[in-house]
Fold this sequence. Notes:
- The protein has a single domain, classed as Alpha-Beta Barrel (TIM Barrel).
- The chain is built from six helices and ten strands, in the order ββαβαββαβαβαβββα.
- The chain has helices at 52-58, 77-87, 121-127, 151-160, 174-181, 201-219; strands at 10-12, 37-41, 67-72, 91-94, 110-115, 133-137, 163-165, 185-188, 193-195, 198-199.
- The protein has an eight-stranded parallel barrel, surrounded by four helices.
- Strand 2, helix 1 and strand 3 (67-72) form a beta-alpha-beta unit.
- Helix 1 crosses helix 2 and helix 5 packs parallel to helix 6.
- The chain starts with 9 loop residues before the first strand and ends with a helix.
- The mean pLDDT is 92.
Amino acid sequence: MAEPHALPRVKLCGVRELDPLLALLGSDPVSGLGVEAVGFIAWESSPRRVSADDTAGLVPLVPGNVTPVAVFVDATPDDAADWIAESGAGAVQLCGNERPADWRGFTVPILRRVGVAPGAERELEAWSGIAWGFVLDAPDAPGGTGKEVDLAIAARLARLAPCLLAGGLDERNVAERIRAVRPQGVDASSRLEISPGVKDPARVEAFLAAVRAGFAAAEGGG
Length: 222
């Protein structure tokens, strides 16, 4: 596996349609901060699921500086590798009960979802050296619930490892949550949707503006 680059500053997850979002993908020409990863849900129980074949039709639309991420729950490395080969995704996100040892040396970078709860530090330690980074999300489901996380615990985790903050983020709360947690990036899905898997471009654009403001304040000591 090639050494992965830095975590995306913004990941937009649960995407089933890309055409309305294409102008928002990639780095903003002024701030350099834009949607740097898009997540395609492979989990069959998700309302945002998209097949590997359909994802293969979407991946060529993704700009070269944006990472397509295949999102799995309780996947095996073999199944994930097959899905990656068919879809053309460039990274995986693991959101179930996958065992770290099974994924050591996997062919593409791994994001590991971590439920933000007491004791979550053990999950970071177990996946250290295997995961590219971690997605901090609500602890009671694999993701996409829109539920917010405990910011104090999330901030502790973000100090220990490279993390994306998820969990109920939208254009109204993301700047404050970036300042509170100081993650390397953010990951949003359900609160920016018109319907499952269909994002509202106007809300995504407003979200990006709020993200830029949040990181500017956090990095400026605000």
